[in-house]
Amino acid sequence: MRQALNNLQAMYSGFRFVNQENVFKVCDLPHPLHVKNMVRNVLGGKFDDACSGLKQLYDLGYSPTDIITALFRTIKNYDMAEYLKLEFMKVLLVVSLGTSQPVKFSDVGCDIPELKGDNFKMWKKRVLLHLGWMDIDYAIRKDEPPAVTNTSTKAEIALYEHWERSNRISVMFIKTKISAGIRGSVDQHTKVRDLLKAIDEQFVTSDKTLASTLIMKFCSTRLDTVRGVREHIMQMRDTAAQLKKLKGKQTNKSTESATRSPHILEIIHTDICSPDMDAHGQRYFISFIDDYSRYMYLYLLHNKNEALDAFKVFKAEVEKQCGKQIKIVRSDRGEKYYGRYTEDG
C-alpha cells in the first residue's frame, strides 16, 4: 500500500493539490473518452462543443482538481510539441481553477486585440500563442515543402496538405485580427511567413530609436512610494536587460585613424536623440560624453533649441569641477543645425 501511494504521488508530483491526504481522490476521475472528446474538440477548433463537455463534467459533480488530473493524463499521450502541451495545460488550469462556472474556450483562445499599430508587440505574442495552442502554426515553423506532383508519394502529399492547411488557416486568422486601415497594405500576401514579415517591417522600430527610448526611461524613472522598492528594482532591471540585449546586436568597428583624447575634457562628444513623447513633456535629450573618461552627462529637453543652453550648463559645471577648459566638441553635425551660427557661437 505504501509503495502504491508513493507511486501515485510521484506520478502527480507536479501538481500541488496531490498530497498524502487526497492521493486516493485522483482515482475517481471523469471517463477518459469524455475527456478525450473535449480535448479533440479544442484542438479542432470546436470551442462550443468543448465548452459543453466542460459543463457536463461540472454538472456531474467533478471538481476542477478531478478535471485537471484527467486532462493531464490525456494530453500527455498526444503527439504534440512539449511547449504546446504546457501552454494547453496552462489554459486549462486557468479555465478550470479560475472559476466554478462553465467558461467558453473561445474566450480564452481568441482574446486577441485588433492590430492598430500601437499594440503590435502584444498583438504578435498573442497571435503566435494562439496559433501554437491550436496546433496550426506548422507553416510558421517549417519551410514550404515541394508542391504535389504526379510522382509524389503519399507521405509527401500528406506533408504538403498539412502545411497548406496550416498556412491557409493562419493567414485567414491573422487577417481577421488586423484593422481595415492596415490590412490593405498586407492583404496581397497568401503565405503566413510573408504576411508576418510584411507586418513586422511596418511596425518594428529601429535599434537606435528603441535604445533612445530605453535610455530616457532609465534616466527618468524615479522610486514611487506607491509601487514600492521591489517593483522599482524589477522595472530598472528589465530596462537594463533590454539595453544590454541591444548592445549585443551592435558590431564594434575599430577606427585606427580616429583621434583619441589623452586627457580629460580635451574632446567632448555630443548628440541629440528623440525618443517617444514623455508624460512630462520632454521630447528630446542631449548627451555629453568625455572621450577620455567616457563619463556622460544627460539633459532632458523640451525643444532642440534648448541644446545650446544645456551645453552652457554642462560646460560651466565640468570646467569648474576639473579646473580645465573644454578644447574640442564633436557632434554628428545634424542637418538642422549644421552651418547655423549665433552670436554665442
TrEMBL record:
* Integrase catalytic domain span: 258-345
Could you give a single Gene Ontology term from the biological process aspect? DNA replication
Which Gene Ontology terms cover its molecular function? DNA binding
Q: What is this protein called?
A: Integrase catalytic domain-containing protein
The species is Nyssa sinensis
